[in-house]
Amino acid sequence: MTSLAERQFQFMASLLAEDGDPLEASSSKFDAGLGIYRNNYRTTLIEALSDTFKRTARWIGEEVFHQAAAHHVIINPPCGWTLDDVGAGFDRTLAELFAKDPEVSELAWIEWSMHRAFGAANAEPYTTGDFADSTAAFSDKDWGALCLDFIPGISTSLVHHDVAAIWHACDSDDVSCPPYSLNEPMACHVYRDGEQPTFITAPAFESPALNAMVGGAHFGDVLDLLFKLRPHESAVADAGAMLGRWLNNGFIVAVRTQAP
Amino acid sequence: MKPEISAHAGFGIGLRTDHYSDFIEHGVPVDFVEVISENFMLEGGRPLRILEQVRTKYDVILHGVSMSVGSACGLDEAYLVRLKNLAERIEPLWISDHLCWTRTSAHNSHDLLPLPLTSEALDMVCRNIDHAQNILGRAMLFENPSSYLTFPEDEMTEWEFITAMARRTGCFLLLDINNIYVSAHNHGFAAKEYLAGIPHEQVRQIHLAGHTPGPIIIDTHDRAVADGVWSLYKEALHFLGPVATMIERDGNIPPLAELLDELDIARSLAGCESLQAVS
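Output (structure tokens, whole complex):
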């Protein structure tokens, strides 16, 4: 290792360290300067998290958020060139820190997913007309082999709280309400509508279905999943309604068939 | 041989989110805008659409903060590809970054960290600049940093380092007058000696910004340009002649008119007339 590389590793280690130990054989003037860089490093990352997770910060309070953000950057120092990635895994950090308040990490997951969707590639969604044209001549076999391409940046997860209500409570700064637990989990889909990231909730089965199809699964695989959960006719109807919702919300950008 | 970067004697400001609508919906009296490259190195979405709209009305400079030409681990190839793609899309006047390092092979500080001023660091910086300029297919500008410490192993002054860097790589210089002022105060050198010592023919742009005073001056870019920096700008013009000049504000972003007033001070010191807004 060259001395420059060694110097940079030492300097970086000093920035990242939780405590502010001076570098070996450094002067007080050097340490004063280093202290400014340490402060800049921490402040920049915490501000980046505050920008990305504005509602999460409102929900748990600015001071608590600041402590959680500081904890996150200490245990997850950034590696990539873009500050946009600093929030990666922050929802999981919050899940550990707020184990008794699981709505916090759900809210953070939504904000993080919206942040990712914000800069995702542009794509023109299929209209219901496009979809009807593409599938007009489909046989039962074609439906089973149907694969979908989705709008870039889409993501989904199960949520156990009324995240829409929490979101609006944060917007109105009315964060004194209970955590809105749901009796049953729901799917939460995050995507970009035009240039605006947004989210919707949907029946829980849509989350594994969407995840599977984003990962390349066939529509037939999704039907098989639903057949395990409910009667045959009901499953087919639910799958059709799900496709309709995905189309209407602009999730689908291409349709193709691919032999299983 | 990298293409020459032509001199540009205009006046501009840094494009910030607060002022997007001013630039798109109105005619702002500037000759160019400078944007932070990384904010637009995205796959798609609103920022890129805004930048493309702005580009139809104004010349644009891409100013980066994450190239890390001082890194002993070399450059991030994926970063360079993204920057090249953005440059092909936007066709900027030029691309600039900082003489600093931000990353090791393991971590990124997202801050502009100081380099030891040694021949080893100079070799590394020149190798990295050569590589970046080759990938991008164009010469770049590099900005003198502000700094809060110096290294015991320093072998030369910053202006000697910068002069050697420019001569060896053919890169051009973005001279941040505020950074010279800040570092001169923090490290006790004469700012005028710095100005006299750099290769004037390589300077293509000047940054003017505000700082936070104190025993160690902090380069915060969150307030108006200080009187001492204006005086130093005037000194710099004596050496450089007409050169593209801009006001750089990154925090406490004021109404656009306030920044344009500051830009008019720069114009006045450079002996140029103010432009009129085109609506």
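The mean pLDDT of chain A is 93.
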